[in-house]
Amino acid sequence: MAMLTDTLFRPLRDLRISLTDRCNFRCRYCMPKEVFGPNFQFLPKDTLLTDDEIERLARIFVSLGVRKLRLTGGEPLLRPNLEYLIARLASIALVEDISLTTNGSLLTHEKAKRLKEAGLKRVTISLDSLDDDTFMRLNDVDCRSETILSAIDAALEAQLTPVKVNMVVIKGTNDTQVVPMAERFRGTGVIVRFVEYMDVGNTNHWEMQQVYPAKDIVNSIHDRWPLVPVQRSQPGEVATRYQYADGQGEIGLISSVTAPFCGACTRARLSAQGKLFLCLFASSGFDLQHYLRQGESDEVITDQIRSIWSKRDDRYSELRSSQTMVKSKVEMSHIGG
Question: What secondary structure letter does DSSP report for 76?
């Protein structure tokens, strides 16, 4: 069977699966407390994809070329019996990688060990500052950085490697933490990925002047410890990589705003309700759960996904303008980062 590609000849290789729209953090750039407050109505649990439905859809996506699965949220560690689901996904032939993106607050040493035993390969943990005042102001639930540092240690101990740490850099908020973050993880085997602040969703009041450009991040680190560019390890990789010239590890830059990588995007996103989104900045998705719960066959669902992907032409970051930014976009808590 010919490789499935979209209108820009991008193959389908990566599937990001949101396990829940709920999160125990209220990060300013994702789920601000004034919107996602105590009276916010999250998705009813009976509308979320079940483990059976997630496994079934994953198998279908793998038949179409997906080789990497990433579990996201919300906060995926809030999903009950997560190890059981991971074990089921790990049993799917041709799946090369299962990873998890988490804020780390619930990742204990025992939890990390169980996830590894179930078949999880690696984790990406969010940490936006080592300074507690800054970090607590960003997560808005008084979680201290030491909690997340402990989670990183747990992931390393469980060999959920390479462990990656995502830092969303917001100009005027935590940009002074770039060099300290690089210093903290140099020589540890942990890869810090500095993420430009993006206009995801509709509630974070994003403005272009809040973006701290990737080139400035690189320059600030390079001035302290010289960096050497590294080739992308595979097509579709989102991060621009650099190694420390002295061999003390590497960093990554995710620069969706200043250096878009839409042309190499191989990712589809599945929401917790089973909607297929073709772009992080999409305004609408395609309801696959409807087909599951109407009793449609795998063949019918496969044909639907093939038809949807083959017509895909999304490249929001390359087209970003004052006109495109006004459109309503799905919240990141529904489809992960």
Answer: G
